Amino acid sequence: GQQLNQSPQSMFIQEGEDVSMNCTSSSIFNTWLWYKQDPGEGPVLLIALYKAGELTSNGRLTAQFGITRKDSFLNISASIPSDVGIYFCAGGGPNTGNQFYFGTGTSLTVIP
Amino acid sequence: GAVVSQHPSWVICKSGTSVKIECRSLDFQATTMFWYRQFPKQSLMLMATSNEGSKATYEQGVEKDKFLINHASLTLSTLTVTSAHPEDSSFYICSARPSGGGYGYTFGSGTRLTVV
What we know:
The complex is a heterodimer of chains A (112) and B (116).
Chain A: E1 5-7, E2 10-14, E3 19-24, E4 31-37, E5 44-49, E6 55-58, E7 61-65, E8 71-76, E9 85-92, E10 100-102, E11 106-111
Parallel strand pairs in A: 2-11
Antiparallel strand pairs in A: 1-3, 3-8, 4-5, 4-9, 6-7, 7-8, 9-10, 9-11
Chain B: E1 4-7, E2 10-13, E3 19-25, E4 30-38, E5 44-51, E6 57-58, E7 67-73, E8 76-81, E9 90-98, E10 106-107, E11 111-115
Parallel strand pairs in B: 2-11
Antiparallel strand pairs in B: 1-3, 3-8, 4-5, 4-9, 5-6, 7-8, 9-10, 9-11
């Protein structure tokens, strides 16, 4: 299956700092999703993006659907300790048979 | 909100035995469910797409005779790992797409399989 390249692989930041991560693919997707996964749990959906150029927020999180439709970005503002976890992007949609393929993940550590 | 229940949350089995994992959509109907496998510190790899009332579609490299998928109703899909071996030890996660459409797929909480 496809795998999307996500960077950075890991981040160690101070509480209160902003975070940026991105995801790139060699394929075009109609939909980009961002998930957060805690250890031993399934991923939880954070933001869904459906249109190229779309910018969507969910509290302190903001994600953008790249214009080329081959990338997406996630920003977290004013990080807090509970933001710790692994963040995954996922691309897919009708052009992939409604299947979604996941990025390699970004591990976020927030230092109080 | 949409809830997907996955059971069991963890299982230990002997090499050569089979293990069944259930994925249920509790408050919605799911025409399509997806099964993923995740190794430690790695991403989720799509194994197969499960469609209610029809055969599952497997990703390249996934043995369909080893990972049997059954989606007999709009709320239940099962993954059976047959003749399990230690290399099958992994975290298996399902996700469900509501029959009404949309792409905010909900994930189950995962099953940790350990084959000894």
